[in-house]
């Protein structure tokens, strides 16, 4: 899928928000500046967050709860995580029970994490556009691509 610009990335985030629910995991991979946080911001805005969501690069985990968003959401940026063992310290498994998880840099925790996640990869694609590829698990069949 080609995302022509930032507006298209935000719009895809809004469509994902309509399909996602608590307990779902959406992973976002790509180089620095690829658009991972922009896509997450599109999801959060569509779920009711007013204003721009901060990047959780330094906080690592930024949570949002009712009524700030329609459902609990954890926006997670694992860029600074150096060891997969840190996931337990962050309480990510606990958040999974009742939050939608938006996870940037999921590869920092290894391939075994979140086998049922919708895995999105964003890459530069000429003239400011982005190429998005998806690995769609059975739990997302019928929800991807979002309408």
UniProtKB/TrEMBL annotation:
<keyword id="KW-0547">Nucleotide-binding</keyword>
<dbReference type="InterPro" id="IPR003442">
    <property type="entry name" value="T6A_TsaE"/>
</dbReference>
<keyword id="KW-0819">tRNA processing</keyword>
<keyword id="KW-0479">Metal-binding</keyword>
<dbReference type="InterPro" id="IPR027417">
    <property type="entry name" value="P-loop_NTPase"/>
</dbReference>
<comment type="similarity">
    <text>Belongs to the TsaE family.</text>
</comment>
<keyword id="KW-0460">Magnesium</keyword>
<dbReference type="Pfam" id="PF02367">
    <property type="entry name" value="TsaE"/>
</dbReference>
<keyword id="KW-0067">ATP-binding</keyword>
<keyword id="KW-0963">Cytoplasm</keyword>
<protein>
    <recommendedName>
        <fullName>tRNA threonylcarbamoyladenosine biosynthesis protein TsaE</fullName>
    </recommendedName>
</protein>
């Amino acid at each position: 899928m080609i995302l022509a610009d930032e507006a298209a990335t935000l719009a895809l985030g809004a469509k994902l928000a309509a399909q996602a629910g608590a307990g779902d995991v959406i992973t976002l991979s790509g180089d620095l500046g690829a658009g991972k946080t922009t896509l997450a911001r599109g999801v959060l805005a569509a779920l009711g967050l007013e204003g721009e969501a901060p990047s959780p690069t330094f906080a690592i985990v930024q949570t949002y709860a009712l009524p700030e968003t329609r459902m609990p959401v954890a926006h997670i940026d694992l860029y600074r995580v150096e060891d997969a063992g840190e996931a337990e310290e962050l309480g990510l498994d606990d958040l999974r029970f009742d939050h939608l998880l938006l996870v940037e840099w999921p590869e920092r925790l290894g391939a075994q994490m979140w086998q049922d996640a919708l895995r999105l990869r964003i890459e530069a694609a000429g003239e400011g556009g982005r190429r998005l590829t998806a690995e769609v698990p059975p739990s997302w069949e019928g929800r991807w691509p979002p309408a």
